[in-house]
Amino acid sequence: MNVSNVKTNVKTNAPRIKSRSNWKKKLTPLLFISPHLIFFTIFLAYPTIYGLVISFHSWNFFTDMRFIGLENYANILWNADSIYYDYFWAAFRATLTFVVLSVPFLIIIPLFIAIAIHARPFGHNFFRALFYAPSLLSVVTVVLIWIWMLDTNAGLVNFYLGWLGFDNIPWLTRTPWVWISLVVMTIWWTIGTNMILFLAGLGEIPDHLYEAAKIDGANRIQQFFNVTLPGLKGPFIFVMIMTTIASFNVMAQPQLATNGGPGYETRVLILYIYEVGFTGGNPRAGMAASMSVVLGLMLLCISLVQFKLMTREK
């Protein structure tokens, strides 16, 4: 083989080698993200799309799906003669009540606990572990603990109230006590997670900002509003949005503690969707799916509004 043929072969093979190298560069990122992509597709994207499809059908799991268009949405959004309309909005009001009562405390209490622990008082590691520990428990365990404590006749709380001369309080059977009970057990269970997030944010605020504020004569309250809160803007937005979404998705606490009672006072939206879709002799999967879609769109709109309000320039 002469020299000219070798040069020709080298020139011919060079594009192929370069093409293979480019394919390897393109495939490498896909290989890294493929586990998450597979998980996302199977457990999030596919169920979401399939749930949207179901919402346009009448289906009870046992018969073939029958396409009915927007009838399910009409029965829960604007057809006031439908029983689902009344129950859906009653459950939404119950959910909104829980959100309004719980979210402010689930943000403010962890914030101040995080600020106190960040100051590193004596035993701060112990108190950080103490406040975070309940978040490691399952919701069933948490609710059982509080049912034992709040039982009207044999609960620990009413025992001590009776010892102090007070009458028994129907914590789990009468309003407004049921709402107080649900909010308190939720706060006790979840403040640890938000506290850790705020602690991480506080650790990112430079100390020289506080020193400059002290030199300018700012007291602790002024430092809080002018240094701490602006420094926690990112974690605060994240905590607020995630806490709001989690509160709208509340189900286990009212299901296990009050069973939606008294009456339907604490039958929140997720609990009602579960009852429509999976209980009774004739489950309505299509109706439940349409309710889930409406709730999802509501949460998306609320999250976008919160994000815009918290990130807009002053």
UniProtKB/TrEMBL annotation:
GO terms for biological process: transmembrane transport. This is Binding-protein-dependent transport systems inner membrane component. The chain crosses the membrane at residues 30-56, 87-117, 129-149, 177-203, 224-248, 285-305. Residues 92-306 form the ABC transmembrane type-1 domain. Gene3D superfamilies: MetI-like. It comes from the Bacteria. It is found in: Cell membrane. Belongs to the binding-protein-dependent transport system permease family. InterPro entries: ABC_transporter_permease (IPR051393), MetI-like (IPR000515), MetI-like_sf (IPR035906). PROSITE patterns: ABC_TM1 (PS50928). GO terms for cellular component: plasma membrane. CDD domains: TM_PBP2. Pfam families: BPD_transp_1. Keywords: Cell membrane, Membrane, Transmembrane, Transmembrane helix, Transport. It is a multi-pass membrane protein.
